[in-house]
Amino acid sequence: MLTDPAARPDTIASDFSNLVVVIAQTGDEWSTTGRLVQHYVLPLLRKHNIRLVEVARKGPTKKDGIAVLQDTRQPYRLHLDGVYKLSRENRVTGTMPQLGGVRKCSQKAKGAPQDAWRTNEFGDRPYIHAIGFNVHEETRITRDSAYSMGGQRIPTYPIYEWGWSRQDCLDYLYRKLGVAWPKSCCDVFPIRYSCYMILCCASWRR
Q: Strand pairing partners for 56?
């Protein structure tokens, strides 16, 4: 959508004024991902004056709240260190990240801070939540689509709707940016799972 304006859906204002890109920082993202996003993605956000919000949890429980690391339409850097790192919690509790099932660590470190921010920002107003699951992630889509918050959250999966695989996404990025984009994930994971850091966190209001 940022590199090809023709891909912009009708729900997005022509000046992108109603688009918000939300990133939850776990504190353990690969530095390579941060450098790539800062070099290639943030300039596009600045060019189109798109609002970027970075959030992170302040502690191990929801009652600790969240920190808003930045909220700007002219972002120049990311705050990869977050506040309360997932790796710190793992050391304190003596646990390992979950690689299968519901992946509760992802819910706590990424989902919960984003949910808290959206609740504060949108209140009870409906909003569209776009997530970058690809065509091979139907199970994740089925699970995610059940989370509608009583109809307030309207999920959409543009990459899936385009019929794109992960390789299609990588090929597109290489054609547009000339760079081979590695998988993004928290570096506490022994296997590098894709998190779609930018695409999965894009939210916009009607």
A: 67
54 pLDDT band (50/70/90 cuts)? very high
* Amino acid occupying residue 187: D
pTM over 0.90: no
- Between CA 121 and CA 22 the distance in angstroms is 12
Strand extents, DSSP E, the chain: 19-24, 51-57, 66-72, 127-130, 153-156, 202-205
Would strands 127-130 and 19-24 be described as parallel, antiparallel, or unpaired? unpaired
Cα separation, 46 vs 119, in Å, equals 25
The C-alpha atoms of residue 22 and residue 147 are separated, in whole angstroms, by 18
Nearest to 129 by CA among 159, 162, 161, 156: 156
Q: Which residue pairs, CB below 8 angstroms and at least 24 apart, start in 139-148?
A: 143/102
Structure-token pair, residue 113 = 């801070």
Residue with tokens 């990240």: 97
Amino acid sitting at position 184: S
